[in-house]
Q: What sequence folds into this?
């Protein structure tokens, strides 16, 4: 392997690590990071037409896939620890991450222009998603059973965010009470969690990639504005309400949110030197 090939491989591995973090970090979408890093449309076209240029695409995405798996395990271990010692502050860090990705998502949504109807789509998506989340009994969802079916469901969400930019599976998993045990299971290499997660993710990617390729061609702008509405609604419902914010802890939450904004903005900054 030539020196330039090694550098390209390592760069794509680094991209994959960050994209993998987006699959499990609330507010940071793996799909958005794939788009920002210049590999999203090629990924969708490859998955939707997997036999076309298979060898070339396989070797192009191999380091990205390896990096993605590495990122998932790395960040799962870190999150498993911080969820135990500073859960509220960590939630505000995630909220900051969401806020930090919104400018990039807004720019991406207007790539082909936008009009009043797209703003209406955003508002409608926000309202429907918020009503959906609020109408669900949190007391029930917090005790959602943890078994092969719910882990496959969680994996399906992770697979979905790989191909739908802007969605955060972690936001939804937090709401359903599955996020903390999922990160703990991944960090502990628990195969009863990892295997159904992987199966659910692969099935979701195979099922939805062709559909997403079609939707992107037909309704790119409307889809992205609907995603923004969903992101905003899913963010509101994870805000920790039962916490004394008039305290040092409140300042720490504010600082954590600010750090999240900065990190997300850095991750979402296009880097022309590493465009795939």
A:
């Amino acid at each position: 392997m030539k020196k330039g090939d090694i550098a390209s491989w390592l760069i794509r591995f680094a991209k994959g690590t960050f994209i993998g973090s987006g699959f499990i970090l609330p507010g940071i979408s793996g799909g958005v990071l794939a788009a920002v890093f210049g590999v999203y449309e090629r990924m969708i076209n490859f998955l939707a037409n997997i036999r076309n240029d298979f060898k070339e695409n396989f070797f192009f995405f191999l380091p990205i896939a390896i990096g993605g798996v590495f990122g998932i395990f790395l960040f799962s271990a870190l999150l498993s620890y911080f969820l135990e010692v500073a859960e509220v502050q960590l939630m505000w860090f995630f909220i900051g991450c969401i806020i930090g990705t919104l400018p990039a998502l807004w720019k991406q949504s207007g790539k082909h222009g936008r009009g009043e109807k797209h703003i209406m789509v955003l508002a409608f998506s926000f309202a429907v998603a918020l009503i959906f989340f609020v109408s669900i009994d949190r007391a029930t969802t917090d005790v959602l059973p943890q078994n092969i079916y719910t882990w496959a469901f969680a994996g399906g969400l992770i697979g979905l965010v790989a191909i739908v930019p802007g969605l955060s599976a972690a936001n939804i998993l937090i709401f359903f009470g599955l996020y903390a045990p999922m990160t703990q299971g991944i960090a502990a290499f628990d195969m009863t969690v990892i295997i159904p997660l992987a199966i659910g993710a692969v099935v979701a990617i195979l099922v939805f990639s062709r559909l997403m390729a079609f939707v992107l061609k037909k309704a790119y702008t409307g889809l992205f504005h609907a995603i923004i509405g969903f992101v905003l609604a899913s963010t509101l419902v994870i805000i920790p309400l039962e916490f004394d914010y008039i305290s040092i802890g409140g300042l720490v939450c504010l600082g954590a949110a600010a750090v999240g904004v900065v990190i997300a903005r850095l991750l979402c900054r296009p880097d022309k030197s590493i465009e795939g």
